[in-house]
Amino acid sequence: MSFWRGIFRHENREATPETRRLYARFEIAHTIVDFLAALCFIVGSIMFFSDAWQIPATWFFTIGSVFFAMKPSLKLWREIKLYRMGKVSELADRLQ
To answer: What is the pTM of this model?
Structure first.
């Protein structure tokens, strides 16, 4: 159970320069995915004004939904990596 209490902690992202870099990279990826999702929904919405474009519009909405689903997945992946980096750091400290 300590694993679940250990993730999503602010200390994990500020622990070292390496964790700060990792956090920044994931924030950039999260922002890009967010932007792509919004763009897909905007394009899909515009396409729905024409009956001829409804099938491609549906695909844009589907792709946008996948991007939106990626957002929490990216956050969870980032937090698990940060948690594991901290555990590796603790092990290294014990060996010294």
So the answer is: 0.76
Return the percentage of the chain with pLDDT > 70, whole number: 86
pLDDT band at 12 (very low <50, low <70, confident <90, very high): confident
Residue indicated by tokens 């980032």: 78
Contact 8, 72 (CB under 8 A): no
**Would you state the structure tokens that stand for residue 72, as one six-digit string?**
């929490």
Task: Name the one residue in this structure whose structure tokens are 């519009």.
Answer: 57
* Separation between Cα atoms, residue 59 and residue 37, nearest integer Å: 12
Among candidate residues 73, 72, 80, the one with its CA nearest the CA of residue 19 = 80
DSSP three-state, residue 96: coil
CA distances from 52 to 21, 40, 48, 61, 62 (A): 46, 18, 8, 16, 18
